[in-house]
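so i finally got all the pieces together for this one. its two components total, 757 residues if u count the protein bits. some of the lines might not be protein, just check the labels. i wanna see the whole assembly predicted at once instead of chain by chain like last time, that was a mess tbh
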Amino acid sequence: MKHTISVLVENHFGAFDRIATLFSGKGFNLTSISIGETEIHDISRMTVVTEGDNQILDQIIKQLNRLIDTIKVVDLTAAYHVQRELALIKISLSKGSMEQVKNINDIFRGNIVDITNNSITIEITGPPDKIDAAVNVLMPFGVIEMARSGIVALTRGEQTKKTIKNNSSESIKKKSQLIKEPK
Amino acid sequence: MKNKEQIMTGAEIFFECLRREKVEHIFGFPGGAVLKLYEKLYDIDYLQHILVRHEQGAVHAAEGYAKASGKTGVVLVTSGPGATNTVTGIADAYMDSVPIVVFTGQVPSHLIGNDAFQEADIVGITRPITKHNFLVRSIEDLALTIRKAFYIASSGRPGPVLVDLPKDVINSKCEFIYPDNMEIRGYKPTIKGHINQIKKAAEAIANAKRPLLYVGGGVIMSGGSRELALFARENKLPVTMTLQGLGAFPGTDELSLGMLGMHGSYWANQAVDNCDVLVSLGARFDDRVTGNVDTFAKNAYKIHVDIDPTCIDKNVIVDIPIIGDVKNILVEMTAEMPKAPDIQDWWHQINEWKDECPMQYEDNDGRLRTEYVIEKISEKTNGNAVIVTDVGQHQMWTAQYYKYNFPRSNITSGGLGTMGFSVPASIGVSFAIKGRPIFSISGDGGFQMNIQELITAAAYKVPVIFVIINNSFLGMVRQWQEMFHGEKYSFTDLSASNPDFVKVGQAFGIESFSTDNPKEVESLLDKALAVKDRPVLIEFKVVKDDLVFPMVPSGGSISEMMVKRINSKRMTLL
């Protein structure tokens, strides 16, 4: 089963590499990984999609927690959460295909971000299965190239937010004041 | 919080930090990128620098020092090859959870990534084999980074930490601030065990019919040997130990079953196979212990005490995990025991196994055997020596036949199995331990892997007795070749190429002896033990083709041990 794991990590060089090294070194499956800034300036959020049975998942979470650079690890799969991925898809245009591609784009609520005489690039955002569906439909038109961002995810609503807040954000803020990192 | 603030150079800050971390010894080797540090070191009298002859030796020495003393071992080497030479030692320390801090020089910041002279990305190289590592990017980070490094290395489950120091950082200046309190937001080891879990465990042990304590190196690291002895003796519990756990509980105690696992005692392994409650204390269910995990203690209710959550359910699924410091947990568990378990029948059974298949070796043909040598060392030192072994057959025989009385007396490379460990590690031990005999025991193969450190031993006049168990073979590999690889002794026969070890010792200025006569063993040991102010070397030429028994073949079930040579053709050769 696929699991989406959200990891808060120190925003400094090497942290990303540590996590990537962990996955390759321990032979854990890594479907997608994305990283970006959070509301706290020195913390990044990594969203990792991985696969494995319960024992492996348990190990992945423990091993992630064990890294000094990770601050909080949450398996979002069981929690009520929202996840999104963005894809840029470049499709070759032939006679009459423009209209059809535009229709498909509308159905998937995508945006056309670039167009030439021979190609059209559309941007589709959504859960990964929606993107899979769009790609499947667009494939026959001739996909020239494609880029997918990997998944980003957050828990939904107040309830889960509160527990995360108590366990991480608040205490993280406190902790970040405690230990002053010299610039 | 702060001492009087003052402007200091990077090198001054470095040594001031070491002084505050109460570092008394560092093992190192100078080079271009750390010249400034060595310049400062020249005038420093509050710590001793021990010059090794190869950086791998420095790391093993620091490991030996740390394992024997419980303090953090410190290494200082230069960039590039100096740094990469430490890699095996760091991996060894990582596998065996040894607290060391390795400082490596680095090319100046502006040259990093340029393939500069003696540049290596040591932080990248050592990332998977360190507990954590740092590249110090500015002088302002230096003091805090060193503070963090010592804190991380020595707390929780200990391990190696590497700090990479670019030359320009060491050469620049800044205000010195050393934080008293250390808190890292992503790192909070659990020390106190969950009381409900402890209660559940105590109850399970009290009601057990066939309980067994399975003790690992964690008990020694936490300083919990006394607490373990109290707990075991109050409840009359049988204790079996892993290779790293030897010494956690006295080997001569009637409750001790000796080592378990691949070359463990028959009765210890039978006890594991038949126990109904298995209590793992600071051990990690390593494959050399468990054999086939599916059949390991298959009917037992398993309790696992460990400070590292990743050890829980990694190899074997357990029933009661308790995360925390094993010493604290043993104290609480002793207090929570409702009653001592009633296990007379169990002891009766264990003693029957002991009689069924005792530890034994052939000793009636007048030829010298390793087991005999180790037995004599054990007798001569009453189990009070610090024994530093290398890797291979002699290591297993030492584990089987040396009866350790104290924790931190058994220093060996367990997890990584690093040949060449013993010679430098024993030198490290000699700077930590005074007044007790120190033995470095190696095979003829492993001895040559860090043979250059003999000059370190001679130069510092360390009172180490270097024992070479010479069977003219890479013995453990030969054993597997004989048993599992069609007797094809591929590249394991050293008899034609081994040096004259007595001459080697003498060339390094070390008094050296050799014998192949069992009758001379005791007198040679007496002679060596009488020397207390310099190293001595003794080569024991032992039977070439002895095998370590009992043995569980790799991946086999530990209930099915091979107890003697099966091949009758080879039996007659003996």
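Chain A has two domains: 2-80, 82-148.
The beta strands of chain A are 2-10, 32-37, 43-51, 70-75, 81-92, 111-115, 119-126, 143-148, 152-155.
anyway lmk what u think
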